[in-house]
Write a structure and sequence with these properties.
The structure holds two protein chains of two kinds. By secondary structure, chain A is an alpha/beta fold. Helices cover about 15% and strands about 25% of the residues of chain A. Chain A is globular and about 50 Å long. Chain B starts with 8 loop residues before the first helix and ends in an 18-residue tail after the last strand. The longest helix of chain B has 13 residues.
Chain lengths: ~220, ~240
């Protein structure tokens, strides 16, 4: 059984540490906030200039001036502060954010990430993704292991234009989890979803990755 | 004392607009956009605009209105996903689009207002964004040279403004507004409330009046919500 979206989010949430400042991308990464362990105090940052994101508002709490980078209405916390977009990206580019969780179209074995454009299709723009991958200390990517047509998305090299070169530290797909200790090292298989065999995983993966320990 | 407060958007923009000009507008998505001033530009005859703005509004609100009226020839933005008319004009070649990573856009605007002609950033190095730009290594890592942006006229939205042009923004409606305010050769601010000088706490002013030449009381504060997301429960 491959992991569900919720299980992917929960796995990423387990990487969060007490005291972290974290930026969550749009889509499945947003769900990570629902799985932060009790006792782990994390401050969420949103690149539109909000630090300390609270939960979605109740109907009566909705305030058009309080949104996250996905343009969703949210709420404040006691710790919340607001800054301009320039200051927000100074936090991001300046290495002050500990961790970011993003979605992807493709990830390559050298850590390259593509998640912003498909040539020939309408391009919505990079938004803040390029800034996040260039400045945040640790990057986790959540994505389906294969595209809808079955093509592997964890590849030797990205075929799509890059969001960042050599930026991914941890890749979690619906089939497996791959990690590398630093950005000079290759990815190592860390966990396989229950019921997924190593043969199935290899067949669904174009990238090379190391297999050690229990998987060998 | 120079009078900065104008009666309405039409008088505040009088004499500032010309064909082929560059406008900068504050806002993120539909949050904190200068909606009164945008409506007035849509009513004006000005065309062939280059617009610096993170987003491009939606079809019937915000900068989408200027696209619908075909007053825009180029957008300098980071994300334009929510606008069908934009997509149509872009794909047909009517509209030029210059994409920037969002932080690079914010910093280019900030640098413009701060008198810095260009800067090196690691964002976008060795991607499509870096094509044609100078690359330099610092501590062994690649950085690319990005140039600053200035606008003929900058349009911002604030919560409160005093008659000297000091502005206070509210919550995440601040976003691009402070840097946009500083990048304009002339900056026009619309505010939800005009207060007398001396009533804003000087320590709490976000944008100093030096950056604001003209000020109006916003006639429109629709503040449309793009994605209304709520949870169950009592407030």
């Amino acid at each position: 059984m491959p992991w569900t979206r919720e299980e992917l989010a929960a796995r990423a949430a387990a990487e969060l540490r007490d005291g972290y400042f974290v930026n969550l991308g749009i889509g499945i990464p947003t769900l990570v906030a629902n799985y932060i362990a009790p006792g782990v105090d994390v401050t969420l940052q949103s690149e539109n200039g909000m630090l300390g994101l609270g939960p979605f508002p109740t109907e009566s709490q909705v305030d058009a001036d309080i949104i996250n980078a996905g343009k969703q209405t949210i709420t404040e916390l006691d710790r919340t502060s607001y800054v301009s977009s320039a200051e927000s990206f100074a936090m991001i580019r300046g290495g002050h954010i500990d961790l970011s969780v993003l979605g992807a179209m493709e990830v390559a074995e050298n850590g390259d990430l593509a998640n912003w454009m498909v040539p020939g299709r309408m391009i919505k723009g990079p938004g803040g993704a390029m800034d996040l991958v260039s400045g945040v200390r640790r990057i986790i990517v959540l994505m389906d292991h294969r595209a809808k047509d079955g093509t592997p998305k964890f590849r030797r090299r990205c075929s799509l234009p890059l969001t960042g070169a050599n930026v991914v530290d941890l890749l979690i797909t619906d089939m497996a989890m791959f990690e590398r200790p630093d950005r000079q090292s290759p990815f190592m298989l860390r966990e396989v979803a229950p019921g997924v065999s190593l043969e199935e995983l290899r067949a669904a993966t174009e990238a090379d990755f190391l297999i050690q320990g229990a998987f060998a | 004392m120079v009078e900065k407060v104008y009666a309405d958007a039409a008088s505040a923009l009088d004499g500032l607009l010309f064909d082929g000009m560059t406008l900068a507008a504050g806002g993120f998505g539909l949050c904190g956009i200068p909606e009164t001033l945008i409506d007035e530009i849509a009513r004006s005859a000005v065309r062939d605009l280059t617009i610096i703005s993170n987003n491009a509004g939606v079809d019937d609100y915000g900068l989408g209105l200027l696209l619908r009226s075909k007053q825009v020839s180029k957008m300098i933005s980071s994300y334009v996903g929510e606008n069908k008319e934009f997509e149509r004009q872009y794909l047909s070649g009517e509209l030029e689009l210059e994409f920037n990573p969002q932080g690079t856009l914010a910093e280019r605007i900030r640098a413009g207002g701060a008198g810095i002609p260009a800067f090196f950033t690691q964002t976008g190095a060795r991607t499509l964004v870096s094509e044609g730009k100078e690359e330099r290594l610092f501590d062994g890592k690649p950085y690319i040279l990005e140039t600053s942006l200035r606008a003929d006229v900058a349009l911002v939205k604030a919560w409160k403004g005093d008659t000297h042009g000091n502005l206070v923004f509210r919550k995440s409606a601040r976003n691009f507004n402070p840097v946009v305010a500083a990048c304009g050769k002339v900056t026009v601010a619309e505010v939800e409330e005009i207060v007398p000088v001396g009533t804003l706490d000087p320590d709490q002013v976000h944008t100093s009046g030096i950056y604001v030449q003209r000020l109006i009381l916003a006639a429109k504060n629709e503040k449309r919500i793009e994605k209304r997301t709520t949870r169950e429960g009592a407030a």
